[in-house]
Structure formats: C-alpha cells, structure tokens
Amino acid sequence: MALQNIGAGNSDDAFYRYKMPKMITKIEGRGNGIKTNIVNMVDIAKALARPASYTTKYFGCELGAQSKFDEKNGTSLVNGAHETAKLAALLENFIKKYVQCYGCGNPETEILITKSQMIQLKCAACGFVSDVDMRDKLTTFIIKNPPEQKKGSKDKKVAMRRAEKERIREGEAADEEQKKLKKDSKKGTTKASSSKKKANGSDEDRSPAHSQVDEKEEVDDVNDEDDDDVQWQTDTSLEAARQRSREQLSAVTADMVMLSTNELEKKAATKTKTSDVAENGNSTALGSVLDELKTNIKKGVSAKQFQSLLGSISGSAQEKISVLVEALFEGVQKGFAKEVVKKRNYLAAAVAQDEGSQLVLLRALEDFCRKSTSSALKEVALVLKALYDSDILEEECIIQWYEEGSKGGNKDSPIWKNSQPFITWLQSAESETEEE
Question: Best label site of 21, 99, 116, 253, fewest CB within 10 Å?
C-alpha cells in the first residue's frame, strides 16, 4: 500500500513519521445512481485518528452531495462521479481544519467538545488547544456524533495511586525481611562461636581458669542479646512508689516522701479540673468559630484564605470539619447536592489539610444528614458523586467509609440504603478497570 505524509506542507520531508495511505476511489453505478466509493477510507481515517464517518460527511458537505458511511461494511460512498485528485484536495482541507494542530502543525491531536458545545483540538506534542471554526457545516455533525473518548484521567489517577501503594507495601515487606535476616545471621554467629568455644574448652592444653573466663564472656554475650529483645519497664504507680520508699528509707524519711506524693496528687487533681474548664472553653470557642465561618462564607472569601482560617482553629480535625459543614449547609433542605457543588471549593480546601481528612469529611456529612431533614438523606448518592467527580473524594475512601458504617446489620439505615447505588456503581467501575 502506497503511503504519503500527512499534510501537504510535509510532502517533501522524506523522514516525516506521520503517514497515511494514498486515496483510492472507484466510481460505481450509472445515471442518477452513480456514486464514488472511497475504497480505503477506513485505513485513511485510522491513520488520521478520526472516525471515517467524519471524512465522508465532510466530502458530502463540501461537494453538496449526499454521503454515507456504512459502519458494518466499512464502505464510504459519495453521490456523483468525483475525481480522486478533487477528493484528495478536500481531504487536505479536512486535515488542516480537524487534524493538524494550529500551533505546531503536528497531526497528533484529540477532538474535545466543551460544555458550551465548542470543538477544540488538543495537541499531544506541544499541548496547544486549537479552537475549530464553528461556522463549518461538519461541526454540527461532530457535536451530534462525538468521538469515543479515551480512558478518563480519574482511572489513570486511581491506577497510579494503587501502584504507588503497592510499591510502598513491597518496600515495607522487603525491609521486614531484611531485619529478620539480620537477626537470624546474628543468632547463627553467636551459636557458632559458642560451639567453637566449647570445643576449645575440652582440649587438655587449655587451662581451667582460661576456660571459665571464656564461658563467662559467652554467657554475658547471650544475656546482652536477650536484653536487646526485652523491654524493661518501671512500675511508676503511686502504690509502687510508696512500697519502694518504705523499703529504702527510714520511717521519718518515708513520711516525708509520703507528704510529697500527697502534694503531687493534689496538683494532678487541679490539672484535671483546669483541663475540664479548657474543654468547656473549647466548645464555646468552636461556637464562635461557627459564626465567624458563616460571615466569611457570606462575604465570599477565597479558598486559600479560608484554608488558612481553618488551620488557625484549635480543636480536633473532626470538630473543625463538622463545624465547617454546619456553617456551609445550615438550613439547606432541598437541593443539598447543588449546594455541595456550589461550595465545593471550601470542601476541597478543608480536605487539603491532611491525608485522613477525606474520611473526616465523610463522617461530618453523615452526621449532618442524620440531623437534617429526609430530603438531605435522599441526596446522599448525588453528593458522593459530585464530590467524586470534583476529585475531592477518592473511591477508596468512599468505599472504606461505607463498609465501616454499614457493618453489623446497619445497611437498612437510610444513609447507607441511599448510598448503596453509587457504591455499587463505583465498585463495578473499579472491577471493569482492573479487567481492562
């Protein structure tokens, strides 16, 4: 099969690596039923990484004739008798408009359809995004028949995360194996040395005093090795301290020590009281923080400023996220999922605090749904889907949260019952990606 360079501007380059077959046409039929068959249209379209229906439709639009591509047989037909050179020139125009990058001219591009129904070409070589002229007739056909998209970036992210975790596990297992081998080798050398010393001790030339010294050293070495494995602990309880003071000191000094221990007990009691007061103060502080968060959300503070504000709050991670969820969605009844999508930037800023914050966010949303009306509970699956699509929650964390919460016969609870369809979809998608 004769090949040619893709793009008329690259026809003179003998080393150009992007090639396509030369067009072969065949005129079929007579009279009003005459048609032009592009015999190798499937091979040309494959080389251009575009559906063959696009090129066939383009010929029909430019020539003002009816065109049809049969998916089953792979035949491309255009009504009327048309010369090969004319169709080849139209194909060059198609390549310039819908294949080559507008920035670098590379034909390795991908068709993207934006939310506003605009067509773009994303170049894999230079990364330039080209805007296609929407006045062309073919654009409406492309929007109605979008190209098959490649695997999503989320699947790639999930696969990369899994591979990373697998590497970490393998590394930890290798470290453990290395430690065991070192311990076994140490024990083997000590056993060998002890057997050698015993053999030498049985000789007649060896003096009894010298053999006793060697045996003592051997016992010390073994004891040292045993001491490495043993963790010595001192009983620091009050009763043990009293017992030791009675054994070691005289009656008078023991009484003095007892006085000091009583003073320590009093100090400990006062510390517990002050900690209780601090906890009560912390709860009131969280209440004031709730009001502060509400005012900042109303003002429309940016996600970065909000993140720094959240980091300045004292309290556990669960308390912080729970207060945040309450501030964001207080009074929301219907349209809970829409509100989550609107305020996802704040949730993303909160989740970026640490690694385990995704589970914390899920538990906070769970508590909020339980406290609020039944309408929020009905939209749990939509909320999970919105947060998953926004890359705020990962599938592993969602599945872990669901499995932990629905244990022990709790699956009939409304929150788990309403979450189940999304979890089933997530697990089926995961199994499909693993099979692929």
Answer: 116
pLDDT of residue 403: 82
CA 142 to chain centre: 32
Residue type, 388: Y
Cα separation, 80 vs 78, whole angstroms: 6
Same domain, 275 and 318: no
Q: In the chain, what are the helix, strand and coil shares in percent, each to the nearest 5?
A: 65, 10, 25
Q: How far is CA 231 from CA 182, 183, 227, 234, 241, in A?
A: 20, 17, 8, 10, 20
Q: What's this model's pTM, rounded to 2 decimal places?
A: 0.38
User: 315 and 429 share a domain?
Assistant: yes
What 3-state DSSP class applies to 27?
strand
Distance CA 72, CA 205 (A): 99
What pLDDT score does 269 carry? 57
Tell me the mean pLDDT in the region 242-249: 64
pLDDT at 369: 78
What DSSP string describes 54-68? HHHHHHHHHHTS-EE
Shared domain check, 319 and 421? yes
For residues 196 and 203, the model is more confident at 196
Domain end point (choices 93, 118, 144): 144
Calculate mean pLDDT across residues 276-296: 56
End-to-end CA distance of the chain: 33
Please report the pLDDT score of residue 211 as a whole number: 47
Residue 293 lies in a domain: no
CATH of the domain at 63: 3.30.30.170
H helices of 107-152, in order, are 138-144
Among the ranges given (77-81, 151-155, 394-398), the one the predictor scored with the smallest mean pLDDT: 151-155
Nearest in space to 286 (alpha carbons), one of 308, 314, 307: 314
CA–CA distance, 32 with 79 (Å, rounded to integer): 9
Supply the range of the domain harboring residue 343: 301-435
pLDDT at residue 253 in the model: 53
Its sign, for the CA torsion 209, 215, 220, 221, is positive
Cα 418 versus chain centre, distance: 24
Q: Which two tokens stand for residue 278?
A: 């601090």
Q: Is residue 349 part of a domain?
A: yes
Contact 25, 84 (CB under 8 A): yes
- d(Cα 59, Cα 83) in Å, to the nearest integer? 12
| Contact call for residues 347 and 392 (beta carbons, < 8 A) | yes
